[in-house]
Amino acid sequence: MIERGRGNDPRAIALRRQSASRLRDAREKLTSSGSGHRAFDVELLDEFARARQISAPAALALAMVISIISVFWAPFPYVLLWFTLVASGALLSYGFAGNYLKLPDQMPPIMLWQQKFAAAEAIQGAGWALIVVLLSNASDPVATVFVIMVLLLAAAMNTMMSATVPAAVYAGLVPITLGITWYMFATNQSATMPLTILAAITLICLIVLAKRLYSNSVAAMLLRKEKDLLIAELEQAKASSDEARLRAEEASLAKSRFLATMSHELRTPLNAILGFSEVMKGELFGPHSVPSYKNYSVDIHNSGEHLLMLINEILDLSRVEAGRYELKEESVSLPGVVEDCTHLLSLRAKKREIRMVEQVEDGLPRIWADERAMRQVTLNLLTNAIKFTPQGGTITIKVGWTGTGGQYVSIRDTGPGIPPEEIPIVLSSFGRGTMAQKNADEGSGLGLPIVKGLVEMHGGTFTLKSEVRVGTEVIFILPPQRVMDTLPQMVDAEDETPGAPDQPLPESPAGLSKIENVRERMGLRRRPAA
């Protein structure tokens, strides 16, 4: 971990702390319903302040237009005074909003700022309501309608802009409502009574709308916090999983590197044990005075060979996992490798009265692969098949083309089979199924992982199929890129016959029907002729 820079990285620690802080804040905000929680109230005040800053110029422009129209019914000095009061309220609200937004990121005094904003809205609402005093002496019915429209327009504007702070909404609507009520009794015009009632109903609708807007704002914040919480949890989970994965990879790589570099240290004492025990077993310097010593030396030699085989398997698997296994690729005949391995293990199969059947397709070209690796893969698979096949059973070995132009080797036995849930176990390092544990010669559980690793290093695939009380079939497939195309035979120019068609290679009829049955069962077919 130190070598690869996986130690305690200050930047990674800081990122984890920031992620945890965001997660904690999101959870804290999510547990609130929006009312009375400082974090939510701060966001509501932020939205109010930004809305007030944006709406202040529009409010001033509207007040100026209304002042110009009011000159038709009121003296100019009174109109100017009214405009000054309305503008003062708008500028006061604008100033409070600007001061609030300039505050540092720390929590501001919520109640104080709510009171300030409510007071500013009350002053601004009172300024708009004073238009009833400005135009109270106007006898023109149009002026009455104009006053009602101005008050409703001001109420609607204040409601929309102040919805995120309910206290500010009520503070702005109270003066306007009082103004409409006073104007209704002051004018005492029966013709304007329906319009006044309609204005009162409109104010009630605006209050309901303000509550609805406030609820929608809180709901939007809740959704946003839920999203932030989900993102924070995903980031924290990803960081934790990445850290755990890196630690596991580093631990596995350290183990593999350690074992890959311990080849000499582990094999040197074993060579001495095997050498001297073989000398003692053969009695090269004279017979033993006690016959039991010879039996002990045989046991020591056998145990040393077993330990050496186990160490070799561990080192092979470690080199594959550590990426230190170097393929020495050359032209290899896959049927030849399978035939040699079958001949090598035929004596062991005969001792257990196991019949080995070979089915090899004709005309298979050579492949570009590591011959030692191919032999090790075939020997491991055949050894497992012989080990778990009962006496009198059959092992079928098939070599042929795949449907995509590659080559495959299939080894099927008539053993007890492997339950489907145990297949991932037997493919893992040191993994053994229940049948292997019952077998006296159970092995180390590294054969199949080594086979899988070597096949994948060649770009191939390894498949294990098994059915309980029927048997097991293992298949490894080499890709078409590994198959070497055969070159045509070179002939002299005078022996070449122009226009003679190419003659197809004859197929051997022997065993053809059996191979076709194999193709049908395994979904494999012969490579099409070029």
Low-confidence stretches: 1-7, 32-37, 486-530
In order across it, which strands form the biggest sheet?
A: 2-4-5-7-6
Beta-strand content bin: 5-15%
Main β-sheet description: 5 strands, mixed
Query: Count the strands?
Result: 7
Mean pLDDT: 78
Order of helices and strands: HHHHHHHHHHEHEEHEEHHHEEH
- The 3D shape can be described as rod-shaped
Structural class: alpha+beta
Give the number of helices: 16
Would you write up a description of this structure?
- The chain has 530 residues and is of the alpha+beta class.
- It folds into 3 domains: 10-234, no CATH class; 263-322; 330-485 and 508-522, Histidine kinase-like ATPase, C-terminal domain (Heat Shock Protein 90).
- It contains 16 helices and 7 strands.
- Strand 4 (394-401) and strand 5 (407-413) form a beta hairpin.
- Helix 4 packs parallel to helix 7 (166-187) and helix 12 runs antiparallel to helix 15.
- The longest helix has 68 residues, at 193-260.
- Residues 1-7, 32-37 and 486-530 have low confidence and may be disordered.
